[in-house]
Design goal:
The chain is 16% helix and 46% strand. The chain is globular, with a radius of gyration of 21 Å.
Length: 179
Amino acid sequence: LYLLLSQKLMKTVLLLIFSLFLLSTTVSAACTRPVYSKDVNSSLHFCGSNFFLKDGLTISKNDVTIDCGSAVLQGFLWQKNIGVLIEDRNNVTLVDCRLVNYGAAILVKNSTNIVLKEMTLLRNIIGLHIIDSMNVSIIDSLDISLERPVRFSNSSNVVFRYNNKKIKGDFCRSNVCGK
């Protein structure tokens, strides 16, 4: 009887392990490896790894969510390139991206309702550049830029909430600048 129960238990454990293996391969197969693209036009979940994207990514469609899954997107530091360009867009969300060695890690231009969450911006000349945009939020994020964390012009209703620094400046009068 003990041997029979042990065999049934072993079969159950093996079946459970096999099922978890299949589930994990299915989940990992659902992620995307970013490649050079000037046209990201759908919501994506990147595989968490390091990717060299000299020219970065351009969001070319409204209502897009990019979950980087802790992926590191890396450019050439002194070429004034952009890690992620969001221009003339509405309702774009970026989550959990690591942007390294760009002239500007993220450029938001003439856009509305942009959410940047859990971003890590490292060794970029400028972390976030916002031009002519409304309702932009960068929250629960880290910035260690070489020159400045934010460059800002003609934009309103912007929320800056970095975990590692407090943003200061005249633009804080009409926007939310909190640590």
